[in-house]
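re: ur question from earlier - yeah i can do the single chain one, its not a big deal. heres the input i used so u can compare w yours
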Amino acid sequence: MKHYKYIESDLEEAILEWFEEDLGYSVAFGLDIAFDGEHPERQSYKDVVLVDRLRSAVAQINSGIPLVKIPSKKGYFSI
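and the output i got, formated as tokens:
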């Protein structure tokens, strides 16, 4: 078995720190934003995309562009 210099948790911590401190991202603990967490942002663990965060980011990035409708399996959603 090959031994690596870093373990996964150390790498994850370093990357999250980089994203938060150097790139300005907001980092949240997964269980806190789970459907049954303190600050739920999804309806189930099957929800991979955090839709409210996506809408907010797209609106901020494209503030001068009117809202658009994007097709999805459940119809359309506006951003």
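The chain has two domains: 1-45, 49-79. not sure if urs matches, ping me
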